[in-house]
Amino acid sequence: MTVAVTGASGQLGRLVIRALLDRGVPAGEIVAAVRSPEKVADLASLGVRVREADYDKPETLAEAFAGVDRLLLISGSEVGVRVAQHTNAVNAAVAAGVSLIAYTSAPYADTTDLPIAPEHKATEEVIRVSGVPFTFLRNSWYVENYTDNLASALQYGAILGAAGDGKVSAAPRADFAAAAAAVLRGEGHDNKVYELGGDQPFTLTELAAEVARQSGREVVYRDLPQEEYAQALIAVGLPDGYAHVLAGSDVSLKEGKLLVETGDLSRLIGRPTTPLADSVAEGLARLAHLS
C-alpha cells in the first residue's frame, strides 16, 4: 500500500515520513510529494520516492498521486489561496483513485470562529463532496510555536501574548505526525474526525514559569490587548496580516477555542502526549546548541 505525504519538505511532513519509517513502512511505499524535490534529497537517499507536487500546478499533482492508495494532504501555508490549492489536490486525488484523504485541519473547524478556521472548513467540505473516504486531523497548536521563540523570551524576560488565562492543548509536531502515520497505515479511520491536542493543556503563564524554572532566568508572561500584541509582532518583522491573525488566535485561545480535551491524540499514538516540561527542555537544548 503506497502512501503519499504532501508538503514533505516541511517540518510536519518530514516528521510524518520519519514516523512511517519508524513504524516499519518500507521507504519504497512512501511518496514525498514536494514543490521542490531537491530539498528532500536526504529522503530520496533513504529510498523514499520523491515526486514534484505543486498545489498551483495540477499537472504535477496528477503525476505525484499516480498509484497512491492513501494521501496525507498537509494544509498549505499561503493564507488566502489555500482553498483553491487544496481543491486542486483533492481533484487530483480523485482522478488518481486514492482510497483515503487525511487532511490536517484546525480544531473544531466547522463550528469555531478561530481566525485560521474558514479555509480549513472550506477544504473539509471540498473533501467531503469529493466522495473519497476521509480522515480530518484537526490539530491544535504546535508547542514549537512557543519553544522555537525561547531566545527572545530569555533575552527580554517575557513571553508576550493576548491569551489571558486561556489554556492551549499544544503538543509537539512529532506527536501530531505520529497520529497522521497511525491513520495512514491503520484501519478503521474512514470518515472520522479527530480533535487532536495535548493531554496537559497549559496557560502562557504556566509556560513562562516552566521556562523560568528550567533556564534559571526570570521569565514572565505579559498579557497585552489584542491590537498592542499585533503591533508588537509587526515590530519584530511579521507581516501585518499574519500578525493580526496570530493576535486574533491568541484571543481565541483566551476564549477556550484551542482547548481540546477529547484524548484523540494520545489514543491514536498509543501513549501519553509529550509533557510541556519535555518540550521546553528540548527547546532550551536546541537554543544552547545554536548559540
TrEMBL record:
Designated name of the protein: NAD(P)-dependent oxidoreductase
Organism: Phytohabitans flavus
NmrA-like domain residues: 2-249
SUPFAM superfamilies on file: NAD(P)-binding Rossmann-fold domains
PANTHER family documented for this protein: NMRA-LIKE DOMAIN-CONTAINING PROTEIN, QUINONE OXIDOREDUCTASE 2
Gene3D superfamilies tied to this protein: NAD(P)-binding Rossmann-like Domain, UDP-galactose 4-epimerase, domain 1
Pfam families on file: NmrA (PF05368)
